[in-house]
Design goal:
There is one protein chain. The protein is mostly beta strands. The protein has 2 domains: about 5-180, no CATH class; about 190-345, no CATH class. The chain has helices at about 60-65, 90, 135-145, 240-245, 285-295, 315-325, and strands spanning about 5-10, 15, 25, 40-45, 50-55, 70-80, 80-85, 95-105, 120-125, 130-135, 155-160, 160-165, 170, 190-200, 205-210, 220-230, 250-255, 260-265, 275-285, 295-305, 310-315, 330-340, 345. It has a 4-stranded antiparallel beta sheet, with no helix packed on it. Strands 14, 15, 16 and 23 form a 4-stranded antiparallel beta sheet that branches. Strands 3-2-4 form a 3-stranded antiparallel beta sheet, with no helix packed on it. The longest helix has 10 residues, at about 315-325.
């Protein structure tokens, strides 16, 4: 029987949340909740059942060892008191993780041994200092849009989930010869992006940065707005990304003490300005970047001719036209091409 098909039980992946700190616990079995019963998690009473889940830990050994050897074993663990989902390959060298119990199995690529196109992606928020898990393309898109302003970024793809709408199912041969399904993360390069942030001080002066934490120049400034324009993180492996998506140019953050202007610039061409730090990269060529990322937009810098400390960055044709024709601001030129959100997955 196992040579042509095998039965499979899928455990839907659910989560509960602590309303005080918004930390979540993800689980495939409710028995996990007992280990964190004092942590204040409240059940997520969504009327929509989970779409994706993990193959049961009780899956037949012959399936795991022979038919589908590239299934990834996932565990519920506690790391410094916080719940996490960790693969066996990451767990065996992790001395800080305490195993709670097995969560189940996920596939090594979408379509492998009956898996779906739903990816289990670990994400981290530097704002909350917490981990969460995306289990659908919709989850990933919401995180990329920074919908909750917590700047979630993927840290790793754990594997590919099973469709949980039919928890008891039969998987038919071929088990691993199916062409991988289209998926937003499979066989892609994770590209960390930094949205342009506008900050403002009590006097109404604005500054533009990709991070104003621990920045002495912006101590008196407070968050004002996140732009729908992002720079590629300055810690990016330039050689890898350039090979896939084309050449890049580094953008810097400059401060002018005379005009009190803090802005993003390509180069140091003003003796009055001080270079503060690297802000991130943009692509030089649109066509190669678009082939790689799909969603590519230009970034233009505008300056108010009547008040030169007023700077604005724009990407949409409508906004470029507004600042050029209606507001009559000076277009300081094209800085390069970039994308949007907290991250992107680039084609290899």
């Amino acid at each position: 029987m196992l040579e042509s098909y095998f039965p499979l039980t899928v455990l839907p992946l659910k989560f509960d949340e602590n309303p005080k700190d918004h930390q979540r616990i993800y689980y495939s079995e409710k028995s996990v909740l007992r280990m964190f019963s004092s942590s204040g998690y409240i059940s997520n009473n969504s009327s929509i059942p989970p779409l994706f889940g993990l193959a049961s830990p009780d899956t037949d050994c012959e399936v795991i060892d022979t038919l589908c050897p590239q299934l990834t074993q996932v565990f519920h663990v506690s790391v410094n008191g916080s719940p996490r989902l960790v693969s066996w390959s990451d767990l065996k060298d992790n001395e800080t993780a305490e195993i709670i119990e097995e969560a189940g199995y996920v596939g090594s690529w979408p379509g492998y041994c009956g898996t779906s196109d739903g990816a289990l992606v670990e994400m981290f928020s530097p704002i909350l200092n917490q981990f969460r898990y995306a289990s659908s393309n919709e989850d990933i898109l919401k995180a990329r849009w920074n919908e909750d302003r917590q700047f979630w970024r993927p840290t790793k793809v754990i594997g590919y989930l099973f469709n949980a709408t039919v928890p008891h199912r039969t998987i038919h041969y071929p088990f691993n010869a199916i062409k991988p399904y289209d998926n937003v993360v499979f066989n892609k390069i994770l590209l960390r992006l930094r949205p342009i942030i506008r900050v403002k001080n009590a006097a109404g002066l604005v500054a533009f940065t990709t991070s104003f934490r621990d920045n002495g120049y912006l101590k008196q400034y407070k968050f004002d707005k996140v732009y729908n324009i992002s720079l590629i993180d300055q810690t990016t492996n330039v050689a890898v990304i350039s090979d896939a998506c084309g050449k890049m140019t580094l953008i810097y953050e400059f401060f002018n003490p005379i005009t009190t202007t803090y802005r993003l610039k390509l180069r140091d061409d003003d003796p009055n300005e001080e270079m503060v730090k690297r802000a991130g990269y943009v692509f030089r060529e649109e066509s190669s970047a678009r082939r790689c990322l799909g969603d590519i937009q230009p970034i233009y810098e505008f300056q108010n001719p009547e008040k030169q400390s007023d700077i604005h960055y724009s990407s949409s044709p409508e906004e470029v036209a507004e600042y050029t024709n209606t507001k009559k601001w000076t277009n300081l030129g094209l800085m390069g091409f970039t994308s949007w959100g907290n991250f992107a997955f680039a084609k290899r």
